[in-house]
Amino acid sequence: METQAVLAGLGVGQLGSFNATRHIRSGRLVALLTQHVSEYGMIYIHYRHRTEQPLRVRTFIDFMVERMTGNRDFFLEESELRAGPPPKRKDKAKERG
Fold this sequence. Notes:
Elements: H1 2-7, H2 17-26, H3 55-68, H4 78-81, H5 92-96
């Protein structure tokens, strides 16, 4: 929902790279405050216990680790974050006036 609001121009949002990456690469979103981005993106999977873990939980964890590790579809390179200033947007008020 936050991603859709930001894409609609309703404000600024703090989006996870897994939500924002494709939009930044396509130019629909612009990364802001990139000097404050951590070098290491973290994604956590929380689960109840390590012992007596249902097979479906372990399978999901293994799937996510395999899917996310090193996958450029979900994470931006440093060069993509520091690509320069965002393009100027047209002022819709001036267009209407």
